[in-house]
Specification:
Radius of gyration: 30 Å
CATH topology of one domain: Receptor-associated Protein
CATH superfamily of one domain: Type II secretion system (T2SS), domain F
Order of helices and strands: EEHEHHHHHHHHHHHHHH
Strand content: 5-15%
CATH architecture of one domain: Up-down Bundle
Length: 401
């Protein structure tokens, strides 16, 4: 990282320049060792506001963390020390935000902190699950194996989540395009045609009057409708930040026909995979469940997992704790019960994770195969009704009816 500095040398002269260092503390120490009195040290990346580049997209994505974990696992496997690993990655990583985080972690490691403690300062990048896994690896002396577990887990999780998200991109794009075209026609084409029909003095059918009414509403009150939508979206966003809003939207997400089933399987796969991975790393059952609740990504399942953790602390079995909730399928509860009775709960959770992952993949493939014909039918019906509502009256005019 590049820093601009101002210093006073041994002769009392002020000097300025640039120095490359991991962070500002290292830069100051380096200048002081040269015998300078440091006046100021600032990041060279600081520029006037009007010269700043837009950095909205400068964030650490799940994909970045997946790649990073795989790189760390590979370097640990090559017997490279933790400090050298993070020094190397801090230089080589392309993402500027992640590069800065890795530089700070490297600095903390150099100061004598553990890997988990150093990474734990950056919860915006590394989840509770990630930090707990790293801490477990340090305590058990299997840090290399832990990062391999993490890399494999994040690969699976990223692939599954991406597949589910990508399945929804196409229908959203089609619906957005359809709505845009319909609004364009209702605000530009329909008003002109409706004036021709009105001038003819012909009585308009009900469906034509409905289309013309919608067109007039958009033309005359379109601005107010947009403002209303913006205000509504703002209040919805604020509501979604509250606990009640998160719970309502989470429940809505798993209740939508077809898509709700896909999300349910995705969360069940995530729960099973998280618990299996943490148990395999030597983390206790209660702690595994508690951490899983924080990273599952749905408030409904988060509350279920929290209640299950409290129930297990009170002495109940895992299967019994989860059986109280209808969102957890009976087959999953029964499989957990078998795992507890045989002492193979970790293996059973892995089997459940693989099962639900396959179910998500199959559901996504089915959804994608059905989306195209359904969208074509919806578009055809919508455009057909719109055209029929204006063409039939025009035909009647030309036919002299």
């Amino acid at each position: 990282m590049l820093f601009k500095y101002k210093v006073i040398d041994a002769e009392g002269l002020q000097k300025s320049g640039e120095i490359d260092a991991i962070n500002v503390d290292v830069a100051i120490n380096s200048l002081q060792r040269r015998g300078f009195v440091v006046v100021s040290v600032d990041s060279a990346s600081k520029v006037p506001f009007f010269e700043k580049k837009i950095s909205f997209f400068d964030k650490v994505s799940n994909k970045d963390v997946v790649i990073l974990s795989r790189q760390i696992a590979t370097l640990f496997d090559a017997q490279v020390s933790a400090l050298k690993i993070f020094n190397l990655l801090a230089v080589e990583t392309e993402n500027p935000v992640l590069r800065s985080k890795l530089a700070e972690i490297s600095s903390d490691l150099k100061a004598g902190n553990s890997v988990s403690k150093s990474m734990g300062k950056h919860t915006d990048v590394f989840s509770d699950f990630y930090i707990n896994m790293v801490r477990s690896g340090e305590e058990s002396g299997k840090l290399e194996q832990t990062f391999l577990y993490l890399a494999d887990y994040l690969d699976r999780s990223y692939e599954l989540t991406s597949k589910a998200k990508n399945a929804l991109v196409y229908p959203i794009f089609i619906i957005f395009t359809f709505v845009s075209v319909m609004i364009l026609m209702l605000t530009t084409v329909i008003p002109r045609i409706s004036s021709i029909i009105a001038e003819s003095g012909q009585t308009m059918p009900f469906y034509t009057r409905a289309v013309v009414g919608i067109s007039d509403l958009l033309v005359n009150y379109g601005v107010f409708l947009i403002i209303l939508l913006i205000i509504g979206a703002f209040f919805l966003w604020k509501y979604a930040k509250t606990e009640a809003g998160k719970l309502y939207l989470s429940r809505l997400k798993i209740s939508i026909p077809f898509i709700g089933g896909l999300y349910r399987k995705l969360y069940l796969s995530r729960i099973s995979d998280n618990m299996h991975t943490m148990l395999a790393s030597g983390i206790s059952m209660v702690r595994s469940i508690e951490v899983t609740g924080t990273v599952v990504g749905n408030k409904v399942y988060e509350n279920i997992i929290k209640e299950a953790a409290e129930s297990i602390k009170a002495g109940k079995s895992v299967s019994e704790s989860f059986s109280k909730h209808e969102e957890i399928p009976s087959i999953m509860v029964q499989m957990m019960k078998v795992g507890e009775e045989t002492g193979e709960l970790g293996s059973i959770l892995k089997t459940l994770s693989n099962f639900y992952r396959r179910e998500v993949i199959n559901a996504v493939d089915t959804l994608v195969s059905l989306i195209e014909p359904v969208m074509i039918v919806i578009l055809a019906v919508g455009v057909g009704l719109l055209l029929a509502s204006v063409l039939i009256p025009i035909y009647n005019i030309s036919a002299g009816v």
